[in-house]
Each structure stands twice: as C-alpha cells, then as structure tokens.
Amino acid sequence: MNATPSAKSRAARRALLSDARLYLCTDSRSQRGDLREFLHACYEGGTDIIQLRDKKIDARDEIAAVEILAEVAAEHGRLFAVNDRADVAAITGADILHLGQEDLTTAQARQVVGPEVLIGRSNRNLDMFAASLADDGIDYAVIGPVWATPTKPDRAPVGLETVQQAASLVRQLRAQGSAESHQQTVSDIVHPHDTAACDPVKPWWAIGGIDQSRVAEVTGAGAERIVVVRALTEAADPETAARALRAAVTK
Question: I need a labelling partner for 232 at 20 to 30 A (CA). Which of 41, 64, 192, 248 fits?
C-alpha cells in the first residue's frame, strides 16, 4: 500500500517542531518484525518525531518501512522524518528530511522535496552548527555526537563543552533577536506596512549516546531537545522509556 502524502502544511509542521523535545532515530526493525508496534509505543510514550534511518536496506524496503511510519505518525498527529534520501521523502510525503554535512545542499534538497517539507541538518562542530542556524532553508540543527556511539563509530564525540557552547550561541541569538524584534515593533508603528522581523533561532537538538542516565547532564549543559537511538530501540518497554525521557527533557 502506498503512503498517503502528509496533508500538514509547512506552518503546521513548524508548530509541531517548535513544541517537540524528544526525537528518535530507528532502523526498520526488520529482524524483530515489530516496526508498527514499536512506533506506536514510542509515540504513545511522548516521542515527538521519529526518523527512519536504515543503511542496510534497499530503497524499496526503505519506502515500505517509511510508509508504515507515515501511517503511525498520522494516527498520533506527530512528525516523521526520512534520513538522507530526498527522493524517499518526496515519495512518502515526509514531514522532515534530515541531512548530514556530506549530503545534498539545502538548495538541492529543496528542488526535490519542495517548500513544505522541513529540513534538518547534523553538525559535528560549532562552526557547522552556526552555519546551519544561519541557513534560511534549514528548519532545525543537531549537534553531536555528545558521547561516543556505535551508531556513528567514525565520529569523535564533541563532549558536553560543545553543547554548552551551542547553548551559549543560541542565547546570544535570542537576545539579538529580541532586540531586533523590539526595533521592528517600533518600526511597524511608524511604517505599518513593513514586514516584521523573524526570530533567528531555530529549534536545536543534542545527539549521541544520550539515555536516561545521561539526559540530566546534557540538559544541564543547555540542550533543550534530545535525539536518542538505543535508549528506545533497545528498551524492553519503549513506551515507558519514552515517557521517562520526555519528562526528563521538559523539566
């Protein structure tokens, strides 16, 4: 069965993204054969976004798995994401296309998925992170891996210090944006037809080795949102694990 393309507008997707705190990356769970049940459990537990990322399957199997993800996400009114593959995102009506540094440029991705799909990008240092925040075509930025993780064995961990630096940068941008917003409000009074300034700060996420035992450390370093993998994919009870993580990151 082909997935029905998501009917959510870009504005609706951005509203859900703004409220999101817990983001899961999962494979297709082909060996366990429980993808649909697992996805339901994670969304039910409070996971806001689920991304399918499976480098071991071919394109047709990936599309089939994303179609299941699309159906479950629609049932829960949540967001779902496709990793790397702009063509798969377009075919399945994905809410989000997530890209790495070596994947398509933002402009190239937009040519494939169009203007309504949200785009996120991974960043492994502060310069990349700042560039993603400054890119008008990107909707959110990810920094990491914070700790070493087998899902990215070739990537050195950036550590909590980089998370602290990212949080500090975001605070500076927020302060700058608040000042510009105030100036724009004054300008609107004098020139009411001018367009209001946009908030320059995008949602951002910390990723890499984060689980229940470490979530307090990463949020203490300033992270407002987290991406997890094994904390849910290897959990005996994904719904309960998701609920605990969601509660921890929203304290």
Answer: 64
In Å, how far are 2, 109, 158, 215 from 115, measured between CA atoms?
22, 10, 32, 34
Its pTM stands at 0.90
67's tokens? 């179609």
Q: What is the pLDDT of residues 129-160, one digit of tens each?
A: 999 999 999 999 999 999 999 888 888 999 99
* Packing angle, helices 35-44 and 238-249, rounded to 10: 30
Closest by CA to 232, choosing from 40, 64, 77, is 40
Kindly report the three-state secondary structure assignment for every residue of the chain: CCCCCCCCCHHHHHHHHHHCCEEEEECCCCCCCCHHHHHHHHHHCCCCEEEECCCCCCHHHHHHHHHHHHHHHHHHCCEEEEECCHHHHHHHCCCEEEECCCCCCHHHHHHHHCCCCEEEEEECCHHHHHHHHHCCCCCEEEECCCCCCCCCCCCCCCHHHHHHHHHHHHHHHHHHHHHHHHHHHHHHHHCCCCCCCCCCCCCEEEECCCCCCCHHHHHHCCCCCEEECHHHHCCCCHHHHHHHHHHHHCC
CA dist 140 and 201 (Å) reads 9
Structure-token pair, residue 185: 């409000």
